[in-house]
Amino acid sequence: MHGPASPGWLLVALCAATGAYCLLRMRSGVEEQRHSAGGEALMGFGMAAMAVPSAVFAPPSWTWPLYAVVFGGAALRTLWAARGAPHHLHHLVGTTAMVYMAAVMTVSPGSPGVHHHGHGTSGVPLVTGLLLVYFTGYVLLSGIRLVPAAAAVGTGSGLRWGDRPELSRACRLSMGIGMLAMLLTL
User: Fold this and answer.
1) Do 2 and 53 form a contact (C-beta atoms < 8 A)?
2) Handedness of CA 162, 166, 172, 174 (dihedral sign)
3) pTM score > 0.85 for this model?
């Protein structure tokens, strides 16, 4: 993504740590945790890879279409899962946003500060603006929901740390913040 190196590395670390935690959640005894953890790990690691500062590593031109294909496949899988469970719709928006960002980067790989709007006017493109509004709302609501969950679950709850709902919510909150940061640099 485009932007300064230091915040880029912080975003890489945040997303990679989130992806690693999601991988660990795949071993959970709670089926719901296992079900969503794989897709969230893919998102975390994909976001980490996309956030590597372009000044440090300029990916080859085939990287962005590959991201679009991988996350397009993830979006189709999520669409299938969402037909019976509406809580998967957020994952669908996230994977679709990754496809969108990869498509934008395909058009403008390694061009810091260049904005491609697709409509020839200045300002934020419509899709980017809609995604920013969605993820801003998601981050705010996730933060609000996280506070009561953390207060309600004590340290002696008996749950394994990979099964704790407040940690999975914090994971999703981290990815939402990461998505906002990536969209802002687009």
Assistant:
1) no
2) negative
3) no
